[in-house]
């Protein structure tokens, strides 16, 4: 279906929906869900930048990381977990 045809069909369908209160509520929920998806992330760009910088350091070998198993062993040795 072409865009113009789809647009006409949707306009016609919306005309029917807005005459029924229960369908209006459902339609409002759909629009709310669409708008929610379009909102910006609650994570700021500076956090994404920091993660990207730290990842680059890790990939280049500039910083080191431990496996979860190594961390678990250190935590168990230090605090007696598990």
Number of domains: 2
Low-confidence stretches: none
Helix content: over 70%
**H/E series:** HHHH
Please report the number of helical segments: 4
Which whole number gives the mean pLDDT?
A: 85
Instruction: Give the amount of beta strand, in percent.
Output: under 5%
Shape: elongated
Major sheet: size, sense and barrel closure?
A: none
Radius of gyration: 26 Å
Question: Could you tell me how far the N terminus lies from the C terminus, measured between alpha carbons in angstroms?
Answer: 60 Å
Count the strands? 0
Protein architecture, described:
By secondary structure, the protein is mostly helical. It has two domains: 3-38, no CATH class; 45-79, no CATH class. It is 74% helix and 0% strand. The chain has four helices and no strands. The protein has helices at 3-17, 21-38, 45-60, 68-79. The longest helix is centred in the middle third of the chain and has 18 residues, at 21-38. The relative contact order is 0.05. The model has no long low-confidence stretch (mean pLDDT 85).
